[in-house]
């Protein structure tokens, strides 16, 4: 060693050398402990939290199915063909509304998409090891397409483990998220402006989409999230919170109480079918002395000439394919009628409610009930041919409000129902409220078209 090096070492403070040595030893020991303890802990933690991607088994049960992975689309699947669909795959039915595909996930949960719609397998994950603590995840995104209604039936499998380990099974839509508890069966019906959720078994949580549904709720309205249990349903409309869960059929006529006059922008059209310029029928929106807002159909000075007035509401072909209930409820009143019953053809009533539906072949069919206060008198000297149809038409007490309920029109035992029609309805197309005859005065305070 050179004299200069020896001189430098001799010049160091021995205590300083000792501090440096101990510091090096302490750092080395810390690193050793970190590797000896932290490494296994990190490995243990990773093993408990690690997940792996899972596939979904997809089988086309009707029609065809288009499939894409990102921007790359694969050949379409045809009926009875299957595919192991990975996470991020997008499935779109192809078959003009008659297509369907069944999905089974790795935990045994299922989904079935029908009609029109696009389903994205947003996230499919399961724990990498059996002892993992991460919840299995099935995250789907259901989107409508321009053709029509998307229908998704989802079923979460039975689970009896710790509640915090239960699978996370949820479906996102443009209007909100539906989360399924274990052993839950739910049906989602998605259109451009509304999501309808019905639970057949178990329970589901329905949460409004915070990005699109940002209107503050009224004090009596449902909160952003509602729990829907067996036999119940909820509706999430664009820009609104979920409706309160209920087992009552849904009223698909949102402006049914006539709080304000019906307007064409909302689908209402009023027109005289047969106009008499001398005594045209009048339709007015009235606040009654009793505080009701009602539509008044009136005509006088007819000189025994017929005229009709129709207030109609178009439903834009509301899908009834899977409906189990369809009914009409109304509150009506008849103050005057000069022509007894429904006239010679039993079609000239002071008030008639008609539903127009379509069958699978595209044919229109009509159901209607006539309301009257003046019964026919076959022995009378005038209008002796006036008549009504028993079981269809309804006599009400003059100048008194009467509540009417058709009962389930899809029930074959209901005499007012569709049992005698040539084909079952698959589309709800239009509601018509009509006044017909000579002189009359009739009122409608509220009318509902109920569906489930």
Notes on the protein architecture:
The chain is mainly beta and 452 residues long. It folds into two domains: 198 residues, Jelly Rolls (Sandwich); 188 residues, Jelly Rolls. It has two helices and 30 strands. The strands form four sheets. Strands 1, 3, 4, 6, 9, 10, 12, 13, 16 and 17 form a ten-stranded mixed β-sheet that branches. Strands 5-2-7-8-11-14-15-18 form an eight-stranded antiparallel β-sheet, with no helix packed on it. A hairpin with a 4-residue loop joins strand 25 and strand 26. The chain is elongated, with a radius of gyration of 34 Å. The termini are far apart. About 2% of the residues have low confidence.
List descriptors.
2 domains; about 10% helix; mainly beta; ten-stranded mixed sheet; about 45% strand; eight-stranded antiparallel sheet; 2 helices; 30 strands; Jelly Rolls; elongated; about 450 residues
- Report how far the terminal alpha carbons are from each other: 98 Å
Quote the CATH topology of the largest domain: Jelly Rolls
**What are the low-pLDDT stretches, counting only 5+ consecutive residues below 50?**
213-222
The portion of residues forming beta strands comes to: 35-45%
Count the beta strands: 30
- Which architecture of the largest domain does the CATH hierarchy give at level 2? Sandwich
Number of helices: 2
CATH C-level class of the largest domain is: Mainly Beta
Radius of gyration in whole Å, from Cα? 34 Å
Look at the structure and give the mean pLDDT: 86
Structural class estimated from helices and strands: mainly beta
Number of domains: 2
How would a textbook summarize the main sheet?
10 strands, mixed
**Coarse shape:** elongated
Helical amount among residues, as a percent range?
A: under 10%
């Amino acid at each position: 060693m050179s004299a200069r090096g020896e001189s430098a070492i001799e010049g160091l403070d021995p205590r300083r050398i000792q501090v440096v040595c101990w510091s090096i030893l302490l750092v080395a020991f810390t690193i050793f402990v970190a590797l000896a303890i932290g490494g296994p802990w990190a490995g243990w933690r990773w093993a408990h939290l690690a997940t792996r991607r899972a596939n979904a088994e997809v089988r086309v049960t009707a029609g065809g199915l288009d499939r894409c992975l990102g921007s790359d689309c694969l050949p379409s699947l045809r009926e009875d063909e299957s595919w192991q669909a990975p996470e991020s795959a997008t499935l779109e039915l192809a078959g003009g509304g008659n297509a369907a595909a069944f999905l089974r996930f790795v935990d045994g949960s299922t989904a079935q998409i029908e009609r029109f719609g696009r389903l994205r397998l947003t996230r499919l994950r399961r724990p990498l090891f059996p002892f993992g603590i991460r919840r299995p995840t099935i995250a789907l995104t259901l989107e409508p397409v321009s053709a029509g209604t998307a229908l998704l039936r989802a079923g979460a499998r039975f689970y009896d483990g710790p509640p915090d380990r239960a699978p996370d099974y949820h479906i996102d839509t443009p209007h909100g998220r539906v989360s399924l508890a274990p052993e839950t069966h739910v049906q989602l019906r998605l259109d451009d402006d509304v999501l309808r959720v019905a639970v057949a078994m178990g329970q589901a949580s329905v949460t409004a989409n915070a990005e699109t549904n940002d209107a503050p709720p009224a004090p009596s309205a449902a909160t952003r999230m509602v729990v829907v249990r067996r036999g119940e349903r909820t509706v999430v409309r664009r820009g609104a919170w979920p409706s309160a869960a209920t087992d009552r059929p849904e009223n698909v006529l949102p402006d049914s109480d006539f709080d304000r006059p019906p307007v064409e922008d909302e689908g209402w059209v009023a027109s005289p079918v047969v106009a008499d310029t001398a005594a045209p029928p009048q339709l007015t929106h009235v606040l009654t002395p009793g505080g009701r807002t009602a539509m008044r159909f009136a005509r006088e000075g007819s000189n025994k000439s017929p005229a009709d007035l129709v207030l109609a509401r178009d439903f834009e072909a509301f899908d009834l394919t899977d409906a189990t209930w369809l009914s009409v409820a109304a509150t009506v009143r008849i103050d005057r009628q000069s022509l007894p019953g429904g006239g010679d053809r039993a079609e000239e009533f002071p008030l008639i409610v008609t539903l127009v539906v379509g069958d699978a072949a595209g044919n229109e069919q009509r159901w209607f009930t006539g309301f009257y206060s003046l019964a026919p008198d076959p022995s009378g000297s005038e209008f002796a041919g006036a008549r009504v149809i028993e079981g269809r038409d309804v006599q009400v007490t003059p100048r008194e409000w009467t509540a009417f309920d058709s009962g389930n029109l899809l029930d074959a035992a209901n005499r007012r129902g569709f049992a005698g029609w040539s084909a079952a309805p698959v589309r709800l197309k239009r509601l018509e409220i009509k006044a017909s005859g000579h002189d009359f005065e009739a009122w409608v305070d509220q009318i509902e078209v109920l569906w489930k």
